[in-house]
Design a protein that fits this description.
3 helices
Length: 55
């Protein structure tokens, strides 16, 4: 899976690419579609898994 598969706007995808990211971590891949759908989300994952970067 790539960030392009998550339905993000072009501006966001460009920023993600500029930061050197190309594939989401599992927590990002699961959380981003939920947030984009406008739903509330509570998630837990280990430190270093990309939660803050996904936010």
């Amino acid at each position: 899976m790539h960030f392009t598969d998550l339905g993000l706007r072009a501006e966001i995808l460009r920023s993600i690419s500029e930061q050197g990211y190309d594939t989401p971590t599992p927590i990002q891949a699961q959380a981003i579609p939920v947030v984009l759908a406008g739903r509330d989300l509570m998630a837990a994952a280990q430190t270093g898994t990309g939660k803050t970067a996904g936010f």
